[in-house]
Amino acid sequence: EPDWARGIRCGASSGPQPPMSVPSATKGGELFVPYRAVGLVSAGLPVAVVQHGGETFVTASLGRTFQIYNCAKLRQVFVGPSLPAGITALGAHDDYTLVACGTAVVVYKRAELVATLEGEHTAPVRHLLAMGSSVVSVDATGLLVAWQLPSGEVAGRLHPGFAASALCHPATYLNKVLLGAPDGRMQLWNLRSSKRVHEFEHGWRAAVTAFEQSPALDVVGVGLADGRLLLHNLKFDTTLLELRHTHGDAVRCLAFRTDGQPWLVSGAASGALHVWHLERRARLSLEPCAHEGGVASCHFLRGRPELLTAGAADNSLRMWSSDLHSGELSALRGRAGHAAPPTLVRFHDDELHVGGGPGGQTHLLSAGGDRTLRRSSIWSAQQDCELSQGRETKRRSMHETSVRERRLPPVLALASSQRRERDWANVVTCHAGSPVAYSWDTTTKALAPHTLAARPAAPITAVAISACGNFAFLGSAIGAIDKYNLQSGKPRAAAAAEERHEGAVRGLAAAADGRTLFSCGGDGTLRLWAPAALKLQSTADVGCACGMLRHKRDSTLVALAADDLSVRVMDAVALRLVRRLEGHTNTLTDVAWGADARWVLSSALDCTLRVVDVPSGALIGWYSFEYAATSITVSPGGEFLCTAHVDSQAICVWASRPLFEEVLIGAVTDTRPTPLQLPTAMGGDGGDESEDEEGDGEEEEEEE
Fold first, then answer.
1. Using one digit for the tens of pLDDT, what is the confidence trace for 257-283?
2. Do residues 309 and 290 lie in contact, with contact meaning Cβ atoms separated by under 8 Å?
3. SS3 295
4. Residue 111, C-beta contacts closer than 8 angstroms, at least 6 positions apart
5. For residue 521, which of 538, 499, 544 has the smallest C-alpha distance?
6. What is the DSSP letter of 390?
């Protein structure tokens, strides 16, 4: 193991740190190597639930890997190794975790690979079902194969004539499997003889989407794509009860309560949870916005009134408690990441306070298309949380039923400080089209009492916080700049009308000494202000409209992303151009400084990341991603680079090799960028991961 990999684990002294492994393909001259992906909870596949004694564990897919949670507190206990392809189905039986990956089924016993079941399927496996000491797999063509565990021998194979859309094993039906078809047919097959036992007479005339064994023998719950859910007696081929979702909302999953109450919960494609009383033949309650984008699976814990649900698209797991009399579901606990790809990520740490804690032991603030602001930890998933918007969502119209529409508009920019974190608001955000900036408190994990309005009213396009943590600066679309006190929320100064930018303010940054405020705008100028009264001190012509501004507080340099696809480095003292960095072929998405203000990193929609050494002007790193990076940020100590990408809900963390081992840094001579593979939740190429027992930031559901 290389020294720098050990150095990352030893960098933090408070509690165990996750190990890091380095893929062999990156042991060259790359400056950054994959470390881990942060913020992933569930990729949307149905989860696998297994009981071990008095504890219940749930396995969720994360794309090319999986992770296991203890349902007691939804604490992450294990992250599986990386797989060569995306996971298509999950299963669990005793100590075994069953993972469908392409045409193969991989069997793990914790991190140990027990068997790889392959050679039978020619299409991706879509369903897995554990039946005693065997596992049943069904692929996209409809071929069903039964395998013995742990030997991996084929116990039977059959093809029912259709690609099954749902399957289950009825209790006490030895070697039998119930199959549902997309055309509404339902058949019972014997796996040992590979023969059809019975085809049920009832043609549902809608695709069968879910099966669930009820507490009563011979009775199963059947969910259909047209919103109907049925209780069907297999022995007598009789439908005992028929219920229906409103507006034909397709049934995605079913769960029976097992503590003696005759309740059935159905998850819908709209994300709603319906609670039904089977004896009254009526619906007890409805949770209309349980998950965004649909409910992938639901499961009642054995003998307890606690319901586990997984979202089909919102990257979340949730536990619910049910009221005995009304049937109302109340959020008990949850784990969630961004439901849409994050578009902005920043380290929540003051650059001047690097020595205040172990290297890299900082949090990330991120915002995305799901309109949430989240705080994440590189080390411990238990510390991840969403900052509450409850105060604002309650003010929204009652006719806005979508959870996302009730939130604040998407975040355009944010600024944070730890100087006065325990005293008052320490995060400020501006939002698309909003003339108001919002202040947040990371201590209470919620919106702060004060909102900061632009004067005159105009959409706010840039924000900054002073080095002392007392003041916030706002830049608006009409070129105005305002100063607010974060403790009281009152205005303290405003730029004179004749000194404003002629276009929108696109970037703001405060100097470390508190004597200078930098701003850039669409008018192609860099302006320096006296922060006390917002008096204009000097102006420099950049030569092109600027899209963003980045300043390293312990230097006098300012990096400007220009609309001509170049990054211009300006000396704020001499007001002259130091470097003009070109090379991107598409719109710049973000710019960041290295820890020592020697490197400038830039990302663009051409799916590349460029690293330039400012003193020499040499390009020392040129990398390409599978998906374009929308935001980049470097930790204050320089240990990590974090990136957010389109089509990915994860925040990717990369380790900086020069901080942990000797690396020969020189100008890039290649004619093509070096491809970098995005990290997984396991980190690198998937080494062993110890249990994550650290953290006290369990995410509780927001009361709205």
1. 999 899 999 999 999 999 999 999 999
2. yes
3. strand
4. 78, 80, 81, 688, 689
5. 544
6. H
Tokens of residue 162, six digits: 């259709």
Which H or E run contains 529?
strand 525-530
* CB-based burial, 9-36: b 16+ in 10 Å, e otherwise: eebbeeeebbbbbbeeebeeebbbbbbb
* Preceding amide of 160 cis, omega within 30: no
Parallel/antiparallel/unpaired status of strands 228-233 and 491-494: unpaired
Element (H, E) at 7: helix 3-10
Decide if 563 contacts 545 (C-beta within 8 A). yes
Per residue in 102-122, pLDDT tens?
999 999 988 899 999 999 999
Dihedral sign from CA coordinates of 162, 166, 168, 173: negative
DSSP line for 648-700:
--SEEEEEEGGGTS---------SSPEE-PPP-SS-TTT-----------PPP
Q: Which of 317, 407, 233, 349 is nearest to 701 (CA)?
A: 317
* pLDDT tens string 467-526: 999 999 999 999 999 999 999 999 999 999 999 999 999 999 999 989 999 999 999 999
Nearest to 204 by CA among 256, 166, 158: 166
